[in-house]
Amino acid sequence: MATGAEFKQDMPPKGGYRAFNFHRTFPKLVWSPGAVVAAIFGATAYGVYTAIESKKTDITEKFEDVDINNALEPFLTAERDRYWLKLLAKNRALEEEIMKDVPGWKTGTWYGEPVYFTLGEKWWDPSATEVYAHSWGSVEAREHLWRQHSEYAGPKFYDNWFPQSISKWFW
Amino acid sequence: MATGNRVPENFQTLSPIVKAPLSDTLSVPLSQQGRICGFFESQFYRCMEAYGAKLGRKYCDLEHRDLQECITGDKQKKRAEAISAQRRKLFLEGKLDSPFLDNHPEPGQFKTDHFQWNRIN
């Protein structure tokens, strides 16, 4: 049975408890408000300056691109026409070569009957059906794909992932 | 009613069958105006205007055929089919290594120029 000798009363430490801080406590001040406000304003001003400058640069770059394109336009058109006329001349030579044994066939006509009767000296471009008469059907399909190609038309990183028979159908 | 204005080959009429104020508006998108074949259509109608509906059937036959050819492309299709058939025939006879060319019109080289200088006539 418990006796009074075994009971020990807990007492305050020697010298008493430390003083209780009942004052309001503030976190340690790392940056002074003035510095923070100055930094924010500075960063904003720098960002605005950078944005304005980069917009000016973009506008200048666009202007240069358009300007160069305008300056090159006659040459690009001439190159386009040159390719187109060379293609038509080659098609004509091919037709001459292929159809030389067909009796009654005249190159550029349907057995001597012209495609258009009333054109005279006026030039009229042939349709894709005629232009692609010497080609595989896939070549015409590729042309349609090419017309919708993205700006980058060079080799792709996935070129070796698919066999040629499949990859020619997509970009 | 434009019963006398039938063009015989293809059940077309030179003027709208029902002539009403609204038909003038509605007949524009049915015409070839502003398209590639608008040139041939205007040539045909100019000729028909000159000769009239009756004589025009005789004297505007070529213009009419050109318009039909531009719209349907039948003669060009026949030509292309004849050429490819001949190529296949030559290939089967062993005179060609391949019936068709592999990379013949290279990509981007098919550039028709119907609308050069922004005009179609």
Condensed summary:
The complex is a heterodimer of chains A (171) and B (121). By secondary structure, chain A is mainly α.
- Give the low-pLDDT segments of chain B: none
Helix content of chain B: 40-55%
Order of helices and strands of chain B: EEHHHH
Widest sheet, order of strands of chain A: 1-2
Major sheet description of chain A: 2 strands, antiparallel
Q: How many distinct beta strands of chain A?
A: 2
| SSE run of chain A | HEEHHH
Largest interface: A-B, 37 and 35 residues
Low-confidence spans of chain A: none
| Number of separate strands of chain B | 2
Distinct helical segment count of chain B = 4
End-to-end CA span of chain B: 31 Å
**How much strand of chain A?**
under 5%
Structure overview:
The complex is a heterodimer of chains A (171) and B (121). With 171 residues, chain A is mainly alpha-helical. Chain A has a domain of 35 residues. Chain A is 50% helix and 2% strand. Chain A has a two-stranded antiparallel sheet. In chain A, strand 1 and strand 2 form a beta hairpin. Chain A starts with 32 loop residues before the first helix and ends with a helix. Chain B is mainly alpha-helical. Chain B has a domain of 63 residues. Chain B contains four helices and two strands. A two-stranded antiparallel ribbon of chain B has the order 1-2. In chain B, strand 1 and strand 2 form a beta hairpin. In chain B, helix 2 runs antiparallel to helix 3. The longest helix of chain B has 22 residues. Chain B starts with 5 loop residues before the first strand and ends in a 29-residue tail after the last helix. The model of chain B has no long low-confidence stretch (mean pLDDT 84). Chains A and B meet through helix 1, strand 1, helix 2 and helix 3 of A and helix 3 and helix 4 of B. Chain A: Complex I is composed of 45 different subunits. Interacts with CARD15, but not with CARD4. Interacts with STAT3, but not with STAT1, STAT2 and STAT5A. Interacts with OLFM4. Chain A: It comes from Caenorhabditis japonica. Chain A: Keywords: Electron transport, Membrane, Mitochondrion, Mitochondrion inner membrane, Respiratory chain, Transmembrane, Transmembrane helix, Transport. Chain A: This is NADH dehydrogenase [ubiquinone] 1 alpha subcomplex subunit 13. Chain A: One of its GO terms (cellular component) is respiratory chain complex I. Chain B: One of its GO terms (cellular component) is mitochondrial intermembrane space.
